[in-house]
Design brief:
Structural class: alpha+beta
Strand content: 25-35%
Number of strands: 5
Number of helices: 3
């Protein structure tokens, strides 16, 4: 099976690191875009100023999660840093921090 490496576009910027991980874990560009578009869980990334998103994959007998770590750039593009498969189900960590001003504004709307 030969994977087609993605190209940078108006929405996403791909790093060389993620290319290697895509080949290692057998992930396609479409699967990574799908995880980015509709994640089941979002967390603060391990690297500074990054976000990690996850979608479950696999089956009930063989559960796994597909994770993508990215960084939001100043021009609203998302730089995809890495992607991986996690065997099993991981515990939830810290959620993405939302500033108190935005939370207060949302509370006033609702």
């Amino acid at each position: 099976m030969r994977l087609k490496l993605p190209k940078n576009d108006a929405k996403y910027e791909w790093t060389n690191h993620v290319f290697g991980k895509m080949l290692f874990y057998g992930l396609t560009e479409g699967r990574i875009r799908r995880v980015m578009a509709s994640p089941k869980r979002s967390e603060e990334g391990v690297a500074p100023e990054t976000i990690a998103v996850m979608q479950p994959g696999g089956s009930k007998k063989n559960p796994q999660e597909i994770w993508v770590m990215f960084q939001v750039l100043k021009n609203k593009k998302r730089r995809i840093i890495t992607a991986w498969r996690y065997p099993g189900i991981s515990k939830a960590r810290a959620k993405i921090p939302i500033p108190n001003e935005i939370l207060a504004e949302l509370d006033s709307i609702i």
